[in-house]
Structures are given as C-alpha cells and as structure tokens.
Amino acid sequence: MTDKPTVSVLGTGIMGxxxxxxxxxxxxxVRVWNRTREKAERLAADGARIAGTPAEAVDGADVVxxxxxxxxxxxDVMREAAPALRPGTVWAQCTTVGVDLIGxxxxxxxxHGLVFYDAPVLGxxxxxxxxxxxxxxxxxxEGRETVAPVFDAVGxxxxxxxxxxxxxxxxxxxxxxxxxxxxxxxxAGEVLALSQALDVDxxxxxxxxxxxxxxxxxxxxxxxxxxxxxxxxxxxxVATAEKDARLIVQAGERAGVRLDxxxxxxxRFARAAALGHADEDMAAAYFASFDEPGHDGGTVxxx
Length: 303
Prior knowledge:
The protein is of the alpha/beta class and 303 residues long. It has helices spanning 14-25, 37-41, 54-58, 71-81, 102-111, 125-129, 144-154, 169-197, 202-209, 217-227, 238-254, 260-277, and strands at residues 7-10, 30-33, 49-50, 63-66, 90-93, 115-118, 121-122, 133-138, 155-162.
C-alpha cells in the first residue's frame, strides 16, 4: 500500500458526500456507493469511481468508511460487501450508531478479519464540506498509519478515545456531545415559538443576551434558519436528529440515567417530522410547538 490508501465510502448522503469529496481532493483513490445511485454519481466530477454494489466498492480497498443512516443499515450494507472484503482491511465506522450495536459491528469486523475503528464525527454539513469535522476515534495503534490520511482529509482534528473500537468509547463520547447539540436545537425552537406566542420580537431576546454568558453562536445560527426560512437543504435533518435523540435516551436507560430533555427533544423532532419537516434542517423542530401542518408560528419577524 502507498501512503495514500484507496478508500471505499459507503453512503453518500449529506455527510458522506462531503467526506468523499474531500478524500478525492486530498489525492486519495476513492470509490463511492449509495443505495440511491444518483447521490453517488454526483461525485464522479470530483474523481470518485462510482460502484454499483457495496461489494464492488470495497473490492481492493485499503480503507472502508461507512457513513449511513443507523447501525442496522451499516450492518446490512457491510454484509452485502462481505464477499469482497479482504482480511486486514481497515474499517472506519463513522455513522452515529449509539452504544448497543457497537459490539455487533466489532464482531462482524473480527469475523471478516477487518481492523475496526469506531470513528463517529462531530460536525454538520458546512464543516464536513470544509474538511473541518472532528473525528472521534477508537481503534488499535497498529492500523492508525493507514487510517490517518483518511481522518486528516475529512477532519480538522482527530480525538483518540481508546485502542479498542469494539468498546465504543468514541461512540459514547459522540452521544454525550449530541445530547448537548440536540437540546440546544430544541431550545432554540422553543425560544422562537414562545417569543411569537407572547408577542415578543425575537430580536429583543438576542439583544438582551448579546455578549453575555447566555449568548451562543449556535443558538443564533439555528434561529436564523427559521427566521430566514432557509431550512432546506438541511445541515442535519430532523429525521436524523430524532434517531440520534432516541439513541441518547436508550443509552441513558441502559446506564440507569433518566434523560428527560433528550426524551422530550426526540418527541419534538418526531412531531416536526409528522408535520412534514422530516427532511428539513433540525432547526425545524420549531414547528413542533404548533399543532397544524404548515403553521408558520403566526408572525415570524423578518430579519
């Protein structure tokens, strides 16, 4: 193998496509596969080779990177890829899968002789496109020189959390980080909804907290998507946010911890999805404050 490994990217949605593009721009040989082929074909212009099946994508690859919807999908796709997987291939598993399925994914890796890295990423569409994600990684020391060029191409930094990918230390840290992100997103929507219900200009709230300890650039960014009506294309979709919130709640239950805010956030995302906002940015959880589909919250002041 050269110092620039051949990388197979399985899953080219919002995050996977951005990561694959940055791998191409870093000069790596990249094969891509997506269940909806059109999403993969957009990467041909960046130099990626489009594969018709997961097995075709991973055939001869040094590194397989999975960025799919959830853990069950990851396992299904890797089973499809199994006939072409070579023992010794590095598997960078970047999907947010929670903690319950890590053991099964690691067992699959052992069964097929793969070097397994639990490697979820922190960041959404914009940092993914800029190659500025944070990679949370756990896996053996001896394979890190192979996976390092991949992590360097997609992320601004790699935070190592352990030497055993199957222990799930990176995925556990990702859930902790996402619990804060999703709570803040849900709270941003409620601030806007309550402002409108009480006939308060949201800008008055932003002026009130400006420059103080309660101010937060993330709050302003998510609120702006609602106020400006720019929820599509999403940076991180409502449906995916609901999935992650439920993983957080499940992890807490397994550990004997009640996570009331995460549970409430999951329900807000579910209601927003049911109202037709599943594929919009997760800031659209704002709409869960209203009962009718298409409700705009009354009077959203223009920015």
